[in-house]
Amino acid sequence: MKKIFIVLLTITSAMTLIAGGGWPQPKGKGYFKLSEWWIVSDQHYTDVGRIDPNITIGVFNTSLYAEYGFTDRLTGVLYFPFFSRNYYNNQVSATTLEIIIPGEAINSIGDTDLSLKYAISKPGSKIAFAATALLGLPLGKDSGGALNNLQTGDGEFNQMLRLDAGTSFNVGSLPFYSNVYSGVNNRTNDFSDEFRYGAELGVGLLNKKWWINAKLDAVVSFKNGLPSGLSNSTTIFANNAEYTSLTMETAYYVTDKLGVSVAYGTAFSGKIILANPSYSVGVFLDLK
Asked: In the predicted model, what is the mean pLDDT of residues 35-56?
């Protein structure tokens, strides 16, 4: 099989709409979201940023995202993909139409993130500053299928420190919010460390029942681990991936606390990453 260099788009880029950013949850309050995220891709960005075709690959994650305020300044965050599916289609000869390599799939739980977010600024401040410490737990399968190239996790334990700064404001009668962040992700098992940064802008409509946002996320590899071709290069968790992506999401409150969301994300530049868009649908409970 031709080696293909691909990596899963950052799942957290489509996790939340209103939760997150520089704002912790109030004490005893929370935000909980059940969602389905997926990407089906027949092309990828190579290690030099060109787009090449590949066997059609699919990744599906059914996940729970939760934020809970332990105090007004300390929030616990969980991202748990309790069902993850990774598959690829049959590889078929272009001349004989014979199946060269049969398609396969694996199902399991996925890699899980546990975080603590601490509000540096006092509650009610005009600019909300927060620091987050994240632990990435390798609970997914890092090898599966006949060729060991199917995964629901990368097999490495990572730790990330992230800083957020957010603010809310009005433009006329419309409520807006914005947030910027940066962070450093330390990775183990010969994976390269990463610098991550991004920005988000959102607006509320219909008396804050309907929210729309745009989120820009970027990952830059330090390239201080093994080269991509030597570390899980035929799986969706390749090393040294880089990208800049845009995610558009909309959320609608059906009641004061219960709502639904839809998201669309795409990487408009990258290296060692899938080149097709991702999608997400979810239902959330906002107890604020």
From this structure: 92
